[in-house]
């Protein structure tokens, strides 16, 4: 029987959550490329062996597809930490233009942090795709507006030869940490990646002081002897570090170090531990049936890097309407 589903190639595929989103709304992913062998193993376990563990820039594109989706590395564009115009990873996004030249997709979708749109590289990608005859537009979507109980603003750049994607209608279905974790055992029992590291003694003492919605500033105020010396040197006004989640709010953006309390608002709403990997997956709308490969830090990276499927499906449906 002929498979009439539109075809997708996924570049910088990670653990495969953007691919999964497209698959769920009726696309067929024929090829995926991911440099990290462990993330590629998660991809293969869940979606099939069309994934290749390789450097996108060293693979020769071959054949045609209807859609290219890509999530190039975003460290160089992120507004967190040093934003490095000379980060060699930034130029990887131009690989998408090279692939589009050969594969001739009808639509290209590039997902990245919002700040990507302010970079020279984004201008370069836009120029390159326009030269190939594409109309190019970008939008910023917050995952929370599309069924994800997480505040997560991401840019989506669309290049199309078949008309422009219209901004999807908002649909806030899951709104809070409480809703996301419904039915999950409250203790992180280690089963099905419901695993959280045991905090060190000082981490535990700090967590005991931080209320829901609070962060390291509560420690500095109420138990200064537990504050790290470095906390006093930098402005503590605009940080989520040692933040504790709140039951009835969405969580803040989950990043790659989502089990490191010093890197964000990752402490459980009432227990004195960071969130488990499965809790993080739930906050990302990744199904419980998704099997991860790797050490906890590698799994955390796969989750923090990924497109939450509920948002991914919204984007995939918008693309499908054009085909
Ligand atoms: C933001 S993540 C993409 C996540 C993916 N879209 C998802 O939804 O799961 C970027 C990925 O690019 C991979 N990567 C970085 N450099 C690469 C390269 N040169 N070739 C292939 N993959 C690369 C990283 O290992 C990382 O998994």
CATH fold group of the largest domain? Rossmann fold
Average predicted confidence as pLDDT: 94
Distance between the ends: 21 Å
Level-1 CATH class name of the largest domain: Alpha Beta
Description:
- It is a single chain.
- This protein folds into two domains: 179 residues, Vaccinia Virus protein VP39 (Rossmann fold, 3-Layer(aba) Sandwich), CATH 3.40.50; 108 residues, DNA Methylase, subunit A, domain 2 (DNA Methylase, Chain A, domain 2).
- Helix 1 links the parallel strand 1 and strand 2.
- Helix 1 crosses helix 10.
- By secondary structure, it is of the alpha/beta class.
- 44% of the residues are buried.
- It is built from ten helices and seven strands.
- The chain has a seven-stranded mixed sheet, sandwiched between helices.
- It is globular, with a radius of gyration of 20 Å.
- S-adenosylmethionine binds next to helix 1 and strand 2.
- S-adenosylmethionine (SAM) binds next to helix 1 and strand 2.
Labels describing this entry:
323 residues; alpha/beta; Rossmann fold; DNA Methylase, Chain A, domain 2; seven-stranded mixed β-sheet; 7 strands; 28% helix; 13% strand; binds S-adenosylmethionine
Short description:
The chain is 28% helix and 13% strand.
Give the helix/strand layout.
Layout lengths: L6 E5 L5 H8 L3 E7 L2 H11 L3 E3 L13 E4 L24 H9 L3 E7 L6 H12 L3 E8 L10 E8 L16 H4 L20 H9 L6 H7 L54 H7 L12 H10 L3 H12 L3
Parallel strand pairs: 1-2, 1-4, 2-3, 4-5
Antiparallel strand pairs: 5-7, 6-7
Helix pairs in contact: 1-10
